[in-house]
Amino acid sequence: MSRSESERTNVDKPLRLLHIDDDENDRFFLQRAVKTADVPIQIEVALDGERALTWLKSAAALPDLILADIRMPRMSGLEFLEAVKKTDRRDVPVVMFSNSVYQGDIERARELGAKAYCVKPAGMAELVEFAKRLYGSWARSELPCEWPGNGK
Question: Contact at 8 Å (CB) between 77 and 68?
């Protein structure tokens, strides 16, 4: 449900984002897309779920949103999601951001409490649009994407 303009408390505030992804290209292109989209998103990066948990435990300011890939070494995005939900940082919304369209991954992410599941865009233009949508949805307290597969 969309909130009225007067209720949009996050408009014009920067989105503090923790991006968890082991792929250097994916991290680079998301940062480039944010810059190209000219949206106020501040990105912190972790290379895997284990490093993200360590960062979260010591962070002075928590991110507004966590964007986590699924397939990563040391600790996958799903393992991270399960682990973070057992900490005092459990209220930070986690959005899965993956190339995987495997229904098992999607269902497991939902079971573990992910707020949304976004399939990574294939090209730069789509990634720029995703960056705009990511910021806009956060500013309006909405989800940045629909759950793929069967149902929301």
Answer: yes
What is the Cα–Cα distance from 8 to 75, expressed in whole angstroms? 35
Answer for the pair 44, 52: CB distance below 8 angstroms, yes or no: no
State what percent of residues in the chain have pLDDT above 90: 80
Q: Could you tell me which residues are beta bridge partners of residue 98?
A: 119
Amino acid residing at 116: A
Question: What domains lie within the chain, and their CATH numbers?
Answer: 10-139 (3.40.50.2300)
How far apart CA 15 and CA 21 sit, in angstroms, is 18
Q: CB-based contacts of 63: which residues, under 8 Å, 6+ apart? A: 16, 17, 18, 44, 92
For residue 84, pLDDT beyond 60: yes
